[in-house]
Amino acid sequence: MSAVPSAQLLRVRRRLGDRFGDIFLYGLTAAAAAAAGALLVAIAWKVFDVARPAISKFGFGFLTHQGWDVARNQFGALDFIWGTAITSLVALAIAAPVSIAIGLYLSELAPRGARTVIASLVELLAAIPSVVLGLWGILVLGPFVGQDLEPWLHRHLGFIPLFSGSPENSGILVAILVLTIMIIPISSSICRELFLGVPDELEHGALALGATRWEMVRGVILPYTRSGVSAALILGFGRAIGEAIAVTQVIGAGHGIHWSLFVTGDTLASRVAEQYQGAAGLQLASLVYLAAILLVFSLIVNLVALAITRRFSYQRAGAT
Amino acid sequence: MAADAGRYSLTLSPRTRRRKLVNLFMQALATLAALSAVAVLVLVIVSVAQRAFGALTWDFFTKTAATFGESGGGVANALVGTIVLVVVAAVMAIPVGILVAVYISEFAPPRIATATKLVLDVLNGLPSIIIGIFVFGLLVLGSGQAAWKGSFALAIIMLPLIARATQEVLALVPSTLREGALGLGASRWRTVVGVVLPTSIGGILTGTVLAVARAAGETAPLLFTTSIAANVVTWDPRQPVLSIPVDIFALSESPDPADHARAWALGFVLIAFVLVISLGARLLLVRHQKKLEG
Predict the structure, then answer these.
(1) Which of A133, A227, A258, B248 has a CA-to-CA distance to A157 between 20 and 30 Å?
(2) Which of B55, B22, B10 is nearest to B264 (CA)?
(3) Whether residues A92 and A166 fall in one domain
(4) Inter-chain CB proximity B278 and A98 less than 8 Å
(5) Successive 10-residue mean pLDDT values, chain A, 320 residues
(6) What is the domain range of residue A162?
(7) In the beta sheet, which residues pair with residue A68?
(8) Which domain range does residue B81 map to?
(9) Are residues B146 and B287 in the same domain?
(10) Do both B194 and B245 map to the same domain?
(11) Is residue B4 part of a domain?
């Protein structure tokens, strides 16, 4: 017997190694994927678990109860559900037309050389950390809103309940503007990609028939991308309802349900971020209950957006 | 003659004129929208840079916060804290993210691949404060804060970003490369480790770097997991550490203008880091794509 193993032995050993390597890599990657799924389940379970004392004490009544009284241990979520709804919905209402317009500009209008530059600048807006945007919101945007924008709105549009009340440097309106700035880069970059995906034949056909660019947009591009655009906007909305930090910085920790946009308020996420420190017992559980409500909302919003995108891409795949 | 001139006139009819005006108006609005988004970006960056300028001294980077009554002081502990948090988070998230991506693109049956992608997208859509609450409930409640717990929260935020980005570049690897390797008798795992992953390393790097940039700016997950820390510089992930975003958050709510100045300076450091990294990653991606196509 020589010290050199025979070719046969080497081949067997190599085959065994490959066999083992294949199974090992498969097992490792599958375990990682399973862990990601388990993580999602664990997150939902743990949030509801920590909130359990509040859930068993208040039940679903928590959703419709107003007020947050730490001294008497009486907690309700309605103020914050309202705050989340009004800030995110109004921000979406402002961001939607702007995002679509930016998407159209970047896909149809912008000069070729400037396209990628402007597109990456708009996307960089999304890269600004929310805490920095919040800092800017308190110290720059807030004073502008309180001293210039709100008095102006009040003077000219004060008959609308949204613009009634006295101007403040922090409050719902500042939060809305900050959220708008956060939604726009997300939605507009998805819109741009959708608009770029519209087949050239369709666009050229409309233009050849004598349509102006705007008529082509209204008649071809927007109908063709309708569901995708709505998914893009819903994703932006999902980002808005979950934003905690920047909103906490600018919204002013208020109470109650008001139609006025000038008053201070709170959203689900911002109330949690404000009060977690020093909270214990039922107050902590109630804060986490707020987070659980937010979790359910954002799951629904995200799943709806994903479902629309999926249907949209199937349709497209079928059409070609 | 006069009638003919009217019929074949080259001047626009009122209706056409109106259509052209509407078109022009809409184009102007779209241009305005894009310009205002860029203007907001410039406005934020300029106002941060302007206010940060005076506070960016040598002491700012090398000293910890001044104790009550003293002036001066810096944010060295927050800077080091962010480095510790992000590095530990990256060590946790990168291998898992790449493994999940390899599973989706190389091994999973189509249905399970779709389901895994859905899980990643849902994870990515979760508000970061929910992640913070989860880690708080899982690790902090009862045993206290620590840097590694904050890193774990950041890793959960990075995981879907890295996995999705990696999976998308793996899908771009030409199947001829895989077939070539398998045809030469290489086993599955040798193909993945020796051919597929090296081909897509550029794209994987880009996704990872973008995820790091995103994690470095996150505040909410850290509030619950590592926000109350001693005023010293520590590299130990078992201790709670302060971080740049949490420090900005705390300083921004203070009424003291000196604190605001420090918040602006920290904000500048954070923005500069995040923007440089995102731009660099984007350039890297463009180069990588050109190489794959060329």
Answers:
(1) A133
(2) B55
(3) yes
(4) no
(5) 70 81 92 95 95 91 87 89 94 96 93 87 90 93 90 86 82 94 94 92 93 93 92 93 92 84 89 84 92 95 90 61
(6) 59-319
(7) A75
(8) 58-293
(9) yes
(10) yes
(11) no
